[in-house]
Amino acid sequence: MRPVRELLKNQDAPWSLKPQDSVFDALKILADHDVGALMVMDQGKLVGILSERDYTRKIALAGKASKDTLVKDIMTSKVLTVDASARTEDCMSLMSQKKIRHLPVVDGDKVLGLISIRDLLDEIIKDQESTINQLQTYIAS
């Protein structure tokens, strides 16, 4: 399995927003880019993550208005991160244990990107397909 740094090579620049942005603006970014979470950055530092789950539980179910609520009021501020050298299976294990679907990737203090559980599943499937092909070739020869 490859380090997650390799997964980020195939991604666009990570989408982010500021704590002072409205939740409505965050929803537009989520929809426009077909992503399930955004990193919340303040002066170049990761201060939180906003996910569809945050919106559903803290806005929709609470009967609040997304246009009147700021990202900082509903974001998850205790963000787990992984180093860019972390292996995909370790990230999958962490995400499963902590019941999270998005994980920022960092190199020291620098945020490199955001991986999702879907990214990891795609990588695991690709790796398994490669192993199967290698075994079939070995058996056929």
Written overview of the protein:
This protein has 141 residues and is an alpha/beta fold. It has a single domain (4-140), classed as CBS-domain (Roll), CATH 3.10.580. 45% of the residues lie in helices and 21% in strands. The chain has 6 helices and 6 strands. It has helices at 4-8, 23-33, 52-60, 71-74, 88-98, 117-140, and strands at 16-17, 37-42, 45-51, 82-83, 102-107, 110-116. Strands 1-2-3 form a 3-stranded mixed beta sheet. α2 (23-33) links the parallel β1 and β2. The two termini are 26 Å apart.
Percentage of residues in strands: 15-25%
What is the general shape? Answer: elongated
Q: Uncertain spans, ≥5 residues at pLDDT below 50?
A: none
Please count the beta strands (DSSP E, at least 2 residues each). 6
Give the number of domains: 1
CATH homology group: CBS-domain
CATH class: Alpha Beta
Biggest sheet strand order reads 1-2-3
Q: Give the structural class.
A: alpha/beta
Helix content: 40-55%
Order of helices and strands: HEHEEHHEHEEH
* Straight-line distance between termini: 26 Å
Q: What would the average pLDDT be, to the nearest integer? A: 91
Q: Major sheet, described briefly?
A: 3 strands, mixed
Using the CA coordinates, give the radius of gyration: 17 Å
CATH architecture type: Roll
CATH level-3 fold name: CBS-domain
With helices defined by DSSP (H or I, 4 residues minimum), what is the helix count?
Answer: 6
Topology of helices and strands:
Elements: H1 4-8, E1 16-17, H2 23-33, E2 37-42, E3 45-51, H3 52-60, H4 71-74, E4 82-83, H5 88-98, E5 102-107, E6 110-116, H6 117-140
Parallel strand pairs: 1-2, 4-5
Antiparallel strand pairs: 2-3, 5-6
